[in-house]
Amino acid sequence: MFHFPTNGQLTEHIIKTVKQIRDFKKNVALVITVSMDGPKEINNELRGNENAWDKSLDTFIKLKALGLKFVYLGYTLSKYNSGKLQEMLFEVKRYHPQIGYGDVHINIAHTSRHYYNNLSSNSLIDSFR
Fold first, then answer.
1. The predicted structure's pLDDT at residue 79
2. Rounded CA gap, 14 and 20, in Å?
3. DSSP H or E segment with residue 57
4. The domain containing residue 54 runs over which residues?
5. Which pTM was predicted?
6. For residue 38, how far is the Cα from the chain centroid?
7. Percent of the chain with pLDDT over 70
8. DSSP assignment of 58-123, as one string?
9. Do residues 32 and 1 lie in contact, with contact meaning Cβ atoms separated by under 8 Å?
10. How far is CA 69 from CA 14, 64, 88, in A?
């Protein structure tokens, strides 16, 4: 098994790389998680790119079209997108009608001085302090 996350912003490069991995190691189970942290407006704001949502969606759909069994959207839950998962899925459903909750991996944003240097964070957990 080979699992990797991607922000989905370099669609053609990602597709090319995935095909190379698949062709090189035919019996490996590829698991790919494409980041999408909310409906279009929220995701783009969080990612700091007005095209981030569209690029992530394009990457997700093209990976699915390769016939890969384990392609997911990665939703990092924070105080900025709490309660927006269903809205995001409805938006995605317009372009990929087969989408469902089983196609989403959910992470919780957290703080870390060592990894992220974000102690003044956007963590959902901060709202419980």
1. 87
2. 10
3. helix 52-65
4. 2-128
5. 0.86
6. 9
7. 85
8. HHHHHHHHTT-SEEEEEEEE-TTTTT-HHHHHHHHHTT-TT--GGGEEEEE----TTTT--SS---
9. no
10. 16, 8, 22
pLDDT tens per residue across span 34-78 = 999 999 999 999 999 999 999 999 999 999 999 999 999 999 998
Helix 52-65 and helix 40-47, axial crossing angle in degrees, nearest 10? 110
Give backbone dihedrals phi and psi of 76, rounded to 5 degrees, phi first: -95, 110
> How many CB atoms lie under 10 A from the CB of residue 22?
15
What's the token pair of residue 124? 């959902």
- How many whole angstroms from its chain centre is CA 68? 16
Distance CA 36, CA 49 (A): 12
Query: Could you give the angle at which helices 52-65 and 11-24 cross, rounded to 10 degrees?
Result: 30
Instruction: Please state the length of the chain.
Output: 129
pLDDT in tens, 92-110: 999 999 999 999 999 988 7
Is residue 90 within 8 Å of residue 99, measured between CB atoms?
no
Domains: count for the chain: 1
